[in-house]
Amino acid sequence: MTPRSERSERPGDRPGRFAALRRIAPLIALFLLLASCSGSGPQSTLEPQGPISRDIDGLWELVFSIAIGVFVLVMVAYVISLIRFRERKNDDRRPKQVHGNTRLEIVWTIIPAVILAVLAVPTVQNLFDIRAEPTGADVLQVRVTGHQWWWEFEYPDITSTDGRTLITANELHIPAGRPVYLTMTSADVIHSFWVPPLNGKRDVVPGRITHLTLEADADQATVDTGFGPGVILGQCAEFCGLAHADMRMRVFVHEEAGFQAWADGQLVPSVVPTEGVAADGFATFNQVCTACHQATVEQPDGTIETIGLEHFIEARGEQFRSSYGPNLTHFGGRTTFGGASFDNVEDHLRRWLANPADLKPMDPDRNDLANARILGMPNFGLSDDEISGLVTLLEGWK
Amino acid sequence: MAVTAERVTLRTPGETGLWSWITTVDHKRIGLLYGVTAFFFFFVGGLEALLVRVQLAQPNGEVLSAAAYNQLFTMHGLTMVFLVIMPIAAAFTNYFLPILIGARDVAFPRLNAFSYWLFLFSGIMIYTSFFVGGAPDGAWVGYSPLATQLPEVVRMDYWAIGLNLLGVASIASSANFIATIFTMRAPGMTMLRMPVFVWMALVVAFLLIFSLPPVAIGLFQLFFDRNFGALFYEGAAGGDPLLWQHLFWLFGHPEVYVLILPAMGIVSEILPVFSRKPLFGYEFVVFSGAAIGFVGFGVWSHHMFTSGMGPVAEAGFGIATMIIAVPTGVKIFNWIGTTWGGRLRFSTPMLFSLGFIAMFVIGGLSGVTHAIVPADTQQHDSYYVVAHFHYVLFGGAVFGYVAGVYYWFPKWTGRMLHEGWGKVHFWLMLIGFNLTFAPMHILGLNGMPRRTYRYGEGLGWDLWNLVATVGAFVIGIAFLLFLWNIIWARKHGEIAGNDPWDGRTLEWTIPSPPPVHNFDEVPVVHSLDDFWHKKYAEDEEGRLVEMATVSGGTLVDTGGEGEGEVHEEHHDIHMPSPSYYPALSSLGIVITGYGLVYLSWGWAAVAVGAMVTLWGLFGWSLEPITREEHA
């Protein structure tokens, strides 16, 4: 729209224009290089480890590349305009007073609308796909309960001969290549279940039931992103109070046989020790810990029982079996504790038992058991001997 | 003329001193109060952001406790939205809306003062929570039942009551602006001759009036849940936590446009001036703004794509969200069209406006990615979202408002801000902003959730968090420079004159700073950009031709229409008298607010506050609008 005559008046413009672009080019290249070299990490949406997440990632790549294309086009027009029409020394141009152009307006209304309409098609398709309930005999059902600030997992279809279901906390074990259908609710406030490499996030809402399907690639059990083979990281994504940042989780992806072995092992009760430090530890456990935690144990006389206070959570008429604190059966077999935030090693466990809030921010002074308001584990003022006993007991419950 | 000025001065006693500011009903002074207050809160909110960034600079940060961090990020969001961007927009609107439409004040000057004082007192009230045991810590969205979980801790009562009082202030000023625009335009100032900034102020006022009531009800329900055992949001008892989310976002999404549209209006004023061309497609810019506001009421649930609404609702809201991109794109194309073929001066207001466009394009495009529902289930509540809305609200809104400060500072003070420092400020801010927020896109896509006070090692987040923290400090330095520029320029800046930028609109026809009555004679408007057309004509090719006679200053209109009216005004300018009743009424309301926060023993304060409010309102309604002359 600039009159030709003006351009010919200033033949010196062109090199200047390219010089400016040349100046920016290395910066853009550097940014892209840094962005691509930074790697994605074990909790990344950009390195999908299963078909659902991969579909979402494909959709993201589509919209991202279109967005980059639009950005470049708009910015080219913008930069050209700024360089070409900038005021120079002794510039006496008299700009043409253009008030608008209806044809252009129509064009730049319709083109974005068409692009968006095209984008809407795969969006809606994929949306219904990821929301659909998986069917088939190989679907693994898991019930998830969000707590401040830990995750509880129950496998309703994996039961012992005496009818106990498999319950664990913070570390979700799943078989590779099989859909896992989560049925979720919350014991207190809203949480959000998010394991980015397996699927997008889904809120976990008190009084409501939400669902999410996870599926890991068939060969995922051997992939190591830095936390062990088959381990994928996730964490709560909806702000849920004090220790929201420490409400993490790990997903262990097993081969089918490995998964069965793990599940079978979990159903075997932990053994009540009869002598030594561990036996003292069990006495403390029975006296203190069972106020909130549960464990399924085999007593010396061979009876199998679940000790500790049980507590049901209701959502939309369904009962979620639960307890105030994580179920500690086979605690020693977990790699982490405290909302999957701390490596399960003796030193950490000692510090935790001496004062839980020292490791993880919690507010146990405001616990209100009568109203099922649990804001963390109190400091019970345990003696060193009691702590040693508990550590030996719990780490022994592999 | 001299006689007129004298009489005007006599009618508005108290030109200086604290009391004159407390009792002022002059829209310009109220605008300045809004601006200074917002600027102060900007530094408070910025400090909170810096503390947050220091904590996150490295994995397992130990600078802040989780409790402190949660308060700081909550207050940062609340401050920046309600105590910075909304009031800075109100500052510009207050000061310039009447001038831009050729009016001498807003329709309800005392209501205007009431809005300001209620805003200020509510802001102070929310901040006093820091000194009585802790500030709100449930995020600015205050999701229930987290926000109702601890009724014995008053932090979220401060939040619920404080936000509602701020809402009252906003509704009052919105009604005021709408009435002003509809009833007080100068002769000839038809709706389609109004500057785009005025149009955007109108859209924003309607957005607030329609969006604040749902959240007000929601906040009261939340307050009742906390204090009277109501169960609106208690899932376990048959209430519904998602009800709060719907009520909040039915306000919260239009609120985003409340924050950005005035900045778009400012940019739409600045670009034509510094391009020496009219705004490209004025009607399209205006109506796309209105369309954004309108469609903005139909997209709130895109904040809830992970909440479990079901795919049908999600698809609907996803597509509605995509539609918003169309009018937004129209604006951007028209702005670029405005620069095309112009003679572009890169003065500071222009630089910030151009920065606004580039940053807003990025924020707009990342917004489109949120409409892709499956992708949004990955991005939601991650740092990607934090990056997105900072590109819109900082890269967009804040750049736009800073452009407005550089543009209109001469009109406020009669002096220019320093151009050189302004340019340094711009480049520092642009670099710091991108260093801070561009990496957050990557962090979010790599799985970092927002509102987390710490993160572990080995997640691949360390580098970009450190970069973001460095960038935040660059932004901090940029704004210290800005502050210094303002302090320096008030005394030492170059004298501006009436029309330092070769402007197009009515504010440049009057002295800087403007007299209390704005216009000695009410202007008669003949076209869009009326002042410009008095300075310039177009030749037969449509090119600019400067007219010899006029270059700023008071224009004597020679048009026939409305001459009689103008003549009448000339001899009798009634400016409303100062009044302390608006401040008193709002003080009473905030005392009531304190009482509600400490409900268990606060009934006395509720009663006292109610009486003070009534006293203020009675005094307000009974006092004469203008004092006796020469009293």
Description:
The complex is a heterodimer of chains A (398) and B (631). Chain A is of the alpha+beta class. Chain A folds into two domains: 14-88 and 99-131, Helix Hairpins (Orthogonal Bundle), CATH 1.10.287; 140-398, Immunoglobulin-like, CATH 2.60.40.420. In chain A, 36% of the residues lie in helices and 21% in strands. Chain A has a five-stranded mixed beta sheet with strand order 3-2-1-5-8. In chain A, helix 3 (51-84) runs antiparallel to helix 4 (102-131) and helix 7 (346-354) packs across helix 9. Chain A starts with a helix and ends with a helix. Chain B is mainly α. Chain B has one domain: Cytochrome C Oxidase, Chain A. Helix content of chain B is 65%, strand content 1%. A two-stranded antiparallel ribbon of chain B has the order 1-2. In chain B, helix 4 runs parallel beside helix 6 and helix 11 runs antiparallel to helix 13 (383-413). The two termini of chain B are 22 Å apart. At the A-B interface, helix 3, helix 4 and strand 9 of A face helix 4, helix 8, helix 9, helix 10 and helix 11 of B.
Helix count, DSSP H or I runs of 4 or more residues of chain B: 19
Number of strands of chain A: 17
Q: Beta-strand percentage of chain A?
A: 15-25%
Distance between the termini of chain A: 77 Å
Count the beta strands of chain B.
2
Low-confidence stretches of chain A: 1-17
CATH homologous superfamily title of the largest domain in chain A: Cupredoxins -  blue copper proteins
Compute the average pLDDT of chain A: 90
Can you tell me the CATH class of chain B?
Mainly Alpha
Radius of gyration of chain A: 29 Å
Q: What is the topology, as strand order, of the major beta sheet of chain B? A: 1-2
Any idea what the shape of chain A is? Answer: elongated
Briefly, what CATH class of the largest domain in chain A? Answer: Mainly Beta
Count helical runs of chain A: 9
What name goes with the CATH superfamily of chain B? Cytochrome c oxidase-like, subunit I domain
Report how far the terminal alpha carbons of chain B are from each other.
22 Å
